[in-house]
Design brief:
This protein is an alpha+beta fold. It has two domains: about 100 residues, Peroxidase, domain 1 (Orthogonal Bundle); about 70 residues, no CATH class. It is built from eight helices and four strands. Helix 7 links the parallel strand 1 and strand 2. It is globular, with a radius of gyration of 20 Å.
Length: about 180
Amino acid sequence: MAGDITTIARPYAEAVFARAQEAGQVGAWNDALSTLSSIAGDAQMVEQIGNPNVPREQLCKATLEIASTELSTEAQNLVKLLSANNRLSTLPEIARLFEDLKTQHEGVRQVHVRSAYDLSEVEQRELVAALEKRLGAEVELTAETDPSLIGGVEIRAGDLVIDGSVRGKLRNLATELQS
């Protein structure tokens, strides 16, 4: 399901980012989306957004009232559009994707590495250097330990996934054997 929400949110995030760049308001849009993400991600609001008995207009009005004067007219229009299309639940993902686009535009790629064991500082520096060369951009690395990988690493940089884990290789082998 996470992939589904990303698929739905991506066009909105890309359109908002293009408009923000055009208007020279990337920072303002980033702040607005952060505010809207917090509102739409609140547990009570999530419950209301998911309730088919709550009218969309009421959700839109509530979202705009909570955000109050922090939103530009264009950001308010985004809320209205998302509400009309029953997409308010995508706001946290739109904000995340917008942030990714902003970071990429600034020439920095966010890379998340999961490894079966703790990576030393030296290993992390070597990995960052190799990824910067491959991606052609500055890399901000976050590392996580996941023993279920059995061995190796899994690297995620946006849509790029490099699965060098033993678990991934075993999964690929099982798929090939089933063919």
